[in-house]
Amino acid sequence: MSTRWYPIYQRGNPQLRVFLPNFWMKLVRPKPKQLPNVVQFHCSMEMTKFDIKNYLEKIYNIPIVDVRTNIKMGKFRKDYGKGYIVKDDDIKCAYIVLPKDMTFKYPDLFEGLKKEDEDSMKSLDEAKKSFNDYLERNKERTDVPSWFSI
Known about the structure:
Structural class: alpha+beta
Order of helices and strands: EEHEEEEH
Strand content: 15-25%
Low-confidence stretches: none
Strand order of the largest sheet: 1-2-6-3
């Protein structure tokens, strides 16, 4: 099943035509902790358990023991602009069970940012300290309005 437009076949040299499905999968970190060999994905509604298993085994070479799916109903909410009731899209969740000897560790995407945050906090503290020193030095000046001091 695909809705992509492919070039029309023309006579002459053979053309490489690859037909790709409109399937997608997104790795998500589950809210309640899972076993180390269970991985959660959000996937397209058209995918079946068999499609999910083949997708991961053939493309990523991941051995899979079991696939469980469920469909989470989207939330109903009130639209802020007009006041209409709007329903969010439903989400299909797939729980992939890996063999017992395999474990999956979610990547830490913000590992490098922690170090940068510490450096930025140090520079922020230094800026605050120098500003307070400036205010203390200029507290007695009469040419500066009183509303300027903090």
